[in-house]
């Protein structure tokens, strides 16, 4: 099928290439579950997703019919015709992901951080400007910085975060300034 997001739009492309493809695979092979890496904090539409996200026999999701997930207890009983989308990282934040990478000393593919990012320096902090919600103060200029600015140390400006400018050059040591505050997913 010759479809792409630039010609047909991203919503249609995603529906045909991802959503419909997944439904076809679930129907063809009779899988009970499909695992995904989506997190609730990524976008508003994912905020109501559960770790075990049940779908009816037509693969429809109804947020009102989802089961409670209290104290990390999950009811995995699948009714006839149902399937589950399982999102084990659903309750993790972006910071949890980066803390896990740091704690486990997982290498990051250099290409991941290769892109330039628009940043703003304010009060000695660098903030990524990833949309038009930030109001520039007099004299502030958005600059492009190279990929040495990882998400672990660079929070989006609209979240009120930032990193000390001194730590932005990629010389951020494992033993200084970055402390694990909680177990990823804790407090869910």
Task: Explain the overall architecture.
Keywords: Nucleotidyltransferase, Transferase. GO terms for molecular function: sulfate adenylyltransferase (ATP) activity. It comes from Salmonella enterica subsp. arizonae. The strands form two sheets. The protein has a four-stranded antiparallel sheet with strand order 6-4-5-7, with no helix packed on it. It is α+β, with helices and mostly antiparallel strands. Helices cover 18% and strands 14% of the residues. The protein has helices at residues 5-8, 10-29, 94-103, and strands spanning 33-35, 52-55, 83-86, 117-122, 125-128, 143-145, 163-164. The chain folds into two domains: 5-86, HUPs (Rossmann fold, 3-Layer(aba) Sandwich); 94-167, no CATH class. It contains three helices and seven strands.
Structure at a glance:
The chain has 188 residues and is of the alpha+beta class. Helices cover 18% and strands 14% of the residues.
């Amino acid at each position: 099928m010759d479809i792409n997001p630039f010609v047909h739009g991203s919503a249609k492309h995603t529906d045909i290439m991802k959503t419909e493809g997944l439904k076809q695979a679930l129907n063809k092979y009779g899988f009970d579950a499909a695992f995904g890496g989506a997190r609730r904090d990524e976008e508003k539409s994912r905020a109501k997703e559960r770790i075990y996200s049940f779908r009816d026999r037509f693969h429809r999701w109804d947020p009102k019919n989802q089961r409670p997930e209290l104290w990390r207890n999950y009811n995995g009983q699948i009714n006839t015709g149902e399937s589950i989308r399982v999102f084990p990282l659903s309750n993790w934040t972006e910071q949890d992901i980066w803390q896990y990478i740091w704690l486990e000393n997982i290498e990051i593919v250099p290409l991941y951080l290769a892109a330039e990012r628009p940043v703003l320096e304010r009060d000695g902090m660098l903030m990524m400007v990833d949309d038009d919600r930030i109001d520039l103060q007099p004299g502030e200029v958005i600059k492009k910085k190279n990929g040495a600015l990882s998400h672990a140390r660079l929070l989006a400006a609209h979240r009120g975060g930032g990193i000390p400018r001194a730590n932005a050059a990629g010389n951020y040591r494992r033993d200084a300034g970055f402390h694990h505050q909680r177990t990823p997913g804790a407090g869910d």
